[in-house]
Amino acid sequence: MGAYIVRRVLSTIVVMLIVGVCVFLLLHIAPGDPAGIIAGDYTSPENIEAIRRRLGLEDPIIVQFGRWGWHLLHGDLGISIFSDVPVMTLIMQRMQPTISLTAITLVFSVITAVTAGVFAGWRAGGLLDRALMGFAALGFSVPVFVLGYVLIYFVAIKLRLLPVQGYVPIQNGFWPWLSHLIMPAFALGLAYVALIARITRTSMLEVLAEDYIRTARAKGATNSSTLLHHALKNAGVPIVTVIGIGVALLISGVVITETVFNVPGVGRLTVDAIANRDYPIIQGVMIVFSGVYVLINLGVDLIYTIIDPRIRY
User: Fold this and answer.
1) pLDDT of amino acid 310
2) Most exposed of 78, 121, 194, 229 (fewest Cβ within 10 Å)?
3) pLDDT digit string (tens) for 79-135?
4) Torsion angle of the four alpha carbons 217, 223, 228, 233, in this order, in degrees rounded to the nearest 10
């Protein structure tokens, strides 16, 4: 088990190095002069030269990468070009809405999808199975922004059940905080629910056809015991895998969802940075999101050793 963990940690370090190189090259592979792109179309040569000196673009690319990597190791993601504020400070200011939205989406998606997938696999071919799989297909088909605007129109404007847009910190009250995140979480998590539910159903169907399931039933095990203690546990590895992989859906969907619902999170910060061509912010957000995704996948690999004892050996 120790060797398995060491291999996974080392592979995570290698992946982060590759991600760091790709993110750093983002500024350099863009067409044209990076300083000119940042300065805009209507600017003076002196302004472009000042930006080049400020970003250190006159140095060799190896030197630039070494300097950027050294600052990154010390938690320095650079300075925003337009607001002149450290990128890490801007990200931390926007982190609470994004973490809140992601956490609620994860809890809602995993509980709903796993429950639906288990029952769909248990009643394969029945009305419940067809209804759940139809819902899953719908979840894959409807874009996040379309579902978001539909929810805003019917739930918030017509029925006036929830706030239209915005975000309220949890310090100002639990229900105001939650009410502003219900619709964004549902819109963001629908595709995630569909993905996990389909994989859960497929894994359950494979496990429920095994001999030890028939043996458990022959010994008088109840349906709940068979589904939860025998079938779901042995079907857990593919489910945990797709939960980890699906985090990429949440990371990419957060940008769109926060824009639609006007949530002042990191996703909205990214959209504003792209509109302003603020490359330090874009690079910083990509590094943070990539690091979170890689660490979650490392956690998934470690969870394998708990779910499946064979991996430990």
Assistant:
1) 66
2) 229
3) 887 787 888 999 999 999 999 999 999 999 899 888 888 888 887 777 877 887 787
4) 30
What gap in Å lies between CA 141 and CA 139, rounded to an integer? 6
Domain(s) labelled CATH 1.10.3720.10 in the chain stretch across 95-264
Spatial distance between the Cα atoms of 109 and 255, rounded to a whole number of angstroms: 18
The number of C-alpha atoms within 13 Å of 148 and in the hemisphere containing its C-beta is 22
Q: Is 72 within 8 Å of 271 (Cβ atoms)?
A: no
Question: Which pLDDT tens digit goes with each residue over 187-224?
Answer: 998 888 888 888 888 888 888 887 777 777 777 777 77
pTM for the model stands at: 0.83
Q: Does the domain at residues 95-264 carry the CATH identifier 2.40.290.10?
A: no
Q: Alpha helix (H) ranges present in the chain?
A: 2-29, 34-39, 45-55, 61-73, 87-93, 95-122, 127-141, 144-151, 174-179, 182-208, 211-218, 223-225, 233-234, 236-245, 247-260, 266-276, 279-307, 309-312
CA gap 181, 192 in Å, rounded? 16
